[in-house]
Amino acid sequence: MRQLRGQERAITANRSTSWSFADAFVAEDEALRWARERAREAGLPSVSPGTGGALRLLAATADAKAVAEIGTGTGVSGIYLLLGMRPDGVLTTVDLQPERQQLAKTAFRAAGFAGNRARFIPGRALDVLPRLADGGYDLVFCDGDRLEYLDYLAESLRLLRPGGLVCFEGVFAEGRTVDSGAQPAEVQRVRELLRAVRESQELVPSLLPVGDGLLCAVRRG
Protein backbone atom coordinates (compact mmCIF):
# COMPACT_ATOMS: atom_id res chain seq x y z
CA MET A 1 0.00 0.00 0.00
CA ARG A 2 1.42 3.41 -0.93
CA GLN A 3 2.24 5.89 1.80
CA LEU A 4 -0.34 8.62 2.30
CA ARG A 5 0.67 12.27 2.05
CA GLY A 6 -0.28 14.85 4.68
CA GLN A 7 -3.54 16.02 3.13
CA GLU A 8 -4.61 12.47 2.29
CA ARG A 9 -3.86 11.36 5.86
CA ALA A 10 -6.00 14.22 7.19
CA ILE A 11 -8.90 13.34 4.88
CA THR A 12 -8.69 9.67 5.84
CA ALA A 13 -8.53 10.47 9.54
CA ASN A 14 -11.40 12.95 9.31
CA ARG A 15 -13.53 10.45 7.42
CA SER A 16 -12.83 7.74 9.97
CA THR A 17 -13.69 10.11 12.82
CA SER A 18 -16.87 11.21 11.06
CA TRP A 19 -17.98 7.62 10.50
CA SER A 20 -17.31 6.79 14.15
CA PHE A 21 -19.31 9.84 15.22
CA ALA A 22 -22.20 8.92 12.91
CA ASP A 23 -22.24 5.33 14.16
CA ALA A 24 -22.41 6.48 17.78
CA PHE A 25 -24.96 9.24 17.12
CA VAL A 26 -27.93 7.17 18.31
CA ALA A 27 -28.08 6.92 22.11
CA GLU A 28 -28.98 3.51 23.50
CA ASP A 29 -31.16 2.91 26.55
CA GLU A 30 -30.79 0.28 29.26
CA ALA A 31 -32.75 -2.40 27.36
CA LEU A 32 -30.51 -2.08 24.32
CA ARG A 33 -27.38 -2.09 26.44
CA TRP A 34 -28.63 -5.23 28.24
CA ALA A 35 -29.32 -7.02 24.94
CA ARG A 36 -25.94 -5.97 23.55
CA GLU A 37 -24.16 -7.27 26.66
CA ARG A 38 -25.93 -10.63 26.36
CA ALA A 39 -24.74 -10.83 22.74
CA ARG A 40 -21.16 -10.14 23.82
CA GLU A 41 -21.37 -12.84 26.48
CA ALA A 42 -22.63 -15.33 23.90
CA GLY A 43 -19.96 -14.34 21.37
CA LEU A 44 -22.59 -13.10 18.93
CA PRO A 45 -22.25 -10.03 16.71
CA SER A 46 -24.99 -7.42 17.02
CA VAL A 47 -25.82 -4.46 14.82
CA SER A 48 -24.01 -1.23 15.62
CA PRO A 49 -25.97 1.76 16.97
CA GLY A 50 -25.62 3.40 13.55
CA THR A 51 -27.05 0.36 11.80
CA GLY A 52 -29.82 0.14 14.38
CA GLY A 53 -30.66 3.79 13.85
CA ALA A 54 -30.84 3.22 10.10
CA LEU A 55 -33.19 0.25 10.58
CA ARG A 56 -35.41 2.29 12.89
CA LEU A 57 -35.52 5.10 10.33
CA LEU A 58 -36.33 2.74 7.45
CA ALA A 59 -39.10 1.02 9.41
CA ALA A 60 -40.60 4.40 10.28
CA THR A 61 -40.29 5.67 6.70
CA ALA A 62 -42.08 2.57 5.43
CA ASP A 63 -44.75 2.99 8.16
CA ALA A 64 -44.08 -0.69 8.70
CA LYS A 65 -46.80 -2.83 10.23
CA ALA A 66 -45.29 -6.22 9.38
CA VAL A 67 -41.53 -6.85 9.46
CA ALA A 68 -39.66 -10.14 9.06
CA GLU A 69 -36.25 -10.55 10.66
CA ILE A 70 -33.79 -13.34 9.89
CA GLY A 71 -31.49 -13.70 12.87
CA THR A 72 -33.08 -12.75 16.20
CA GLY A 73 -29.83 -12.81 18.17
CA THR A 74 -30.43 -11.32 21.61
CA GLY A 75 -32.85 -8.68 20.34
CA VAL A 76 -30.70 -5.64 19.54
CA SER A 77 -31.85 -5.24 15.93
CA GLY A 78 -35.38 -6.25 16.86
CA ILE A 79 -35.70 -3.41 19.37
CA TYR A 80 -34.58 -0.90 16.75
CA LEU A 81 -37.05 -2.27 14.21
CA LEU A 82 -39.91 -2.18 16.72
CA LEU A 83 -39.04 1.40 17.66
CA GLY A 84 -39.56 2.45 14.04
CA MET A 85 -42.65 0.38 13.33
CA ARG A 86 -46.26 1.41 13.82
CA PRO A 87 -47.63 0.98 17.37
CA ASP A 88 -49.75 -1.93 16.14
CA GLY A 89 -46.92 -3.46 14.10
CA VAL A 90 -45.72 -7.04 14.56
CA LEU A 91 -42.15 -8.23 14.16
CA THR A 92 -41.77 -11.83 12.97
CA THR A 93 -38.27 -12.94 13.93
CA VAL A 94 -36.58 -16.22 13.02
CA ASP A 95 -33.55 -17.82 14.65
CA LEU A 96 -32.06 -21.29 14.80
CA GLN A 97 -31.38 -20.98 18.56
CA PRO A 98 -34.50 -20.77 20.80
CA GLU A 99 -32.39 -19.75 23.81
CA ARG A 100 -31.35 -16.58 22.00
CA GLN A 101 -34.98 -15.80 21.36
CA GLN A 102 -35.70 -16.11 25.07
CA LEU A 103 -33.10 -13.42 25.71
CA ALA A 104 -34.67 -11.27 22.99
CA LYS A 105 -38.10 -11.65 24.60
CA THR A 106 -36.67 -10.37 27.87
CA ALA A 107 -35.04 -7.45 26.06
CA PHE A 108 -38.27 -6.56 24.25
CA ARG A 109 -40.21 -6.54 27.53
CA ALA A 110 -37.54 -4.34 29.12
CA ALA A 111 -37.86 -1.96 26.18
CA GLY A 112 -41.59 -1.64 26.90
CA PHE A 113 -43.05 -3.70 24.05
CA ALA A 114 -46.11 -5.84 24.69
CA GLY A 115 -45.80 -9.56 24.08
CA ASN A 116 -48.04 -9.44 21.01
CA ARG A 117 -45.65 -7.08 19.20
CA ALA A 118 -43.28 -9.93 18.27
CA ARG A 119 -43.74 -13.42 16.88
CA PHE A 120 -40.77 -15.70 17.55
CA ILE A 121 -40.24 -18.65 15.22
CA PRO A 122 -37.36 -21.02 15.99
CA GLY A 123 -35.83 -22.82 13.04
CA ARG A 124 -33.66 -22.53 9.97
CA ALA A 125 -34.62 -19.45 7.96
CA LEU A 126 -34.95 -21.27 4.63
CA ASP A 127 -37.36 -23.73 6.24
CA VAL A 128 -39.44 -20.98 7.89
CA LEU A 129 -39.58 -18.28 5.21
CA PRO A 130 -41.57 -20.34 2.65
CA ARG A 131 -44.36 -20.58 5.24
CA LEU A 132 -44.74 -16.78 5.50
CA ALA A 133 -47.37 -14.94 3.45
CA ASP A 134 -46.65 -13.66 -0.06
CA GLY A 135 -46.59 -9.86 -0.21
CA GLY A 136 -47.36 -9.65 3.49
CA TYR A 137 -44.36 -7.66 4.72
CA ASP A 138 -43.23 -4.05 4.61
CA LEU A 139 -39.60 -4.77 5.46
CA VAL A 140 -37.36 -7.85 5.61
CA PHE A 141 -34.11 -7.61 7.57
CA CYS A 142 -31.52 -10.31 6.86
CA ASP A 143 -28.79 -10.99 9.41
CA GLY A 144 -28.37 -14.75 9.19
CA ASP A 145 -26.03 -17.12 7.39
CA ARG A 146 -24.09 -15.16 4.74
CA LEU A 147 -23.92 -18.30 2.59
CA GLU A 148 -27.73 -18.12 2.32
CA TYR A 149 -28.03 -14.42 1.51
CA LEU A 150 -28.96 -14.96 -2.15
CA ASP A 151 -31.67 -17.38 -1.06
CA TYR A 152 -32.93 -14.80 1.44
CA LEU A 153 -33.12 -12.28 -1.40
CA ALA A 154 -35.33 -14.60 -3.47
CA GLU A 155 -37.63 -15.20 -0.51
CA SER A 156 -37.72 -11.48 0.33
CA LEU A 157 -38.90 -10.56 -3.16
CA ARG A 158 -41.83 -12.91 -2.61
CA LEU A 159 -42.57 -11.70 0.92
CA LEU A 160 -42.43 -7.95 0.27
CA ARG A 161 -45.31 -5.78 -0.82
CA PRO A 162 -44.59 -3.35 -3.68
CA GLY A 163 -42.62 -0.49 -2.15
CA GLY A 164 -41.32 -2.71 0.65
CA LEU A 165 -37.70 -2.81 1.77
CA VAL A 166 -35.12 -5.56 2.09
CA CYS A 167 -31.92 -4.98 4.12
CA PHE A 168 -28.81 -7.12 4.49
CA GLU A 169 -26.42 -6.67 7.41
CA GLY A 170 -22.64 -7.13 7.32
CA VAL A 171 -22.01 -6.83 3.59
CA PHE A 172 -18.61 -5.19 4.12
CA ALA A 173 -17.48 -8.39 5.88
CA GLU A 174 -14.97 -6.34 7.90
CA GLY A 175 -13.36 -5.08 4.70
CA ARG A 176 -12.98 -8.47 3.04
CA THR A 177 -15.66 -7.78 0.42
CA VAL A 178 -13.40 -5.26 -1.33
CA ASP A 179 -10.13 -7.05 -0.54
CA SER A 180 -8.54 -8.38 -3.73
CA GLY A 181 -6.99 -11.35 -1.91
CA ALA A 182 -8.46 -14.83 -1.74
CA GLN A 183 -11.63 -14.84 0.35
CA PRO A 184 -13.85 -17.53 1.93
CA ALA A 185 -17.08 -18.72 0.39
CA GLU A 186 -19.28 -16.44 2.52
CA VAL A 187 -17.51 -13.34 1.18
CA GLN A 188 -17.85 -14.59 -2.39
CA ARG A 189 -21.55 -15.06 -1.68
CA VAL A 190 -21.88 -11.50 -0.40
CA ARG A 191 -20.24 -10.23 -3.59
CA GLU A 192 -22.78 -12.21 -5.63
CA LEU A 193 -25.57 -10.67 -3.56
CA LEU A 194 -24.28 -7.14 -4.16
CA ARG A 195 -24.17 -7.74 -7.92
CA ALA A 196 -27.63 -9.32 -7.95
CA VAL A 197 -29.23 -6.46 -6.01
CA ARG A 198 -27.47 -3.78 -8.05
CA GLU A 199 -28.47 -5.37 -11.36
CA SER A 200 -32.03 -6.35 -10.43
CA GLN A 201 -34.80 -4.64 -12.38
CA GLU A 202 -37.15 -5.26 -9.45
CA LEU A 203 -35.15 -3.27 -6.90
CA VAL A 204 -33.94 0.26 -6.20
CA PRO A 205 -30.75 -0.29 -4.16
CA SER A 206 -28.43 1.66 -1.88
CA LEU A 207 -25.40 0.59 0.16
CA LEU A 208 -25.24 2.40 3.50
CA PRO A 209 -21.81 2.77 5.16
CA VAL A 210 -23.04 2.13 8.71
CA GLY A 211 -21.67 -0.56 10.99
CA ASP A 212 -20.30 -3.38 8.83
CA GLY A 213 -22.30 -2.26 5.79
CA LEU A 214 -26.08 -2.28 5.32
CA LEU A 215 -27.34 -3.14 1.83
CA CYS A 216 -30.89 -1.85 1.32
CA ALA A 217 -33.28 -2.01 -1.61
CA VAL A 218 -36.88 -1.04 -2.31
CA ARG A 219 -39.05 -3.44 -4.29
CA ARG A 220 -40.54 -1.58 -7.23
CA GLY A 221 -44.32 -1.34 -7.46
UniProtKB/TrEMBL annotation:
Keyword match S-adenosyl-L-methionine: yes
UniProt signal peptide: none
InterPro entries: Cation-dep_OMT (IPR050362), SAM-dependent_MTases_sf (IPR029063), SAM_O-MeTrfase (IPR002935)
CDD domains registered for this protein in UniProt: AdoMet_MTases
Keywords per UniProt: Methyltransferase, S-adenosyl-L-methionine, Transferase
GO MF term list: O-methyltransferase activity; S-adenosylmethionine-dependent methyltransferase activity
Lineage: Bacteria, Bacillati, Actinomycetota, Actinomycetes, Kitasatosporales
UniProt-recorded name of the protein: Putative O-methyltransferase YrrM
Gene Ontology annotations of biological process type: methylation
Entry's transmembrane regions: none
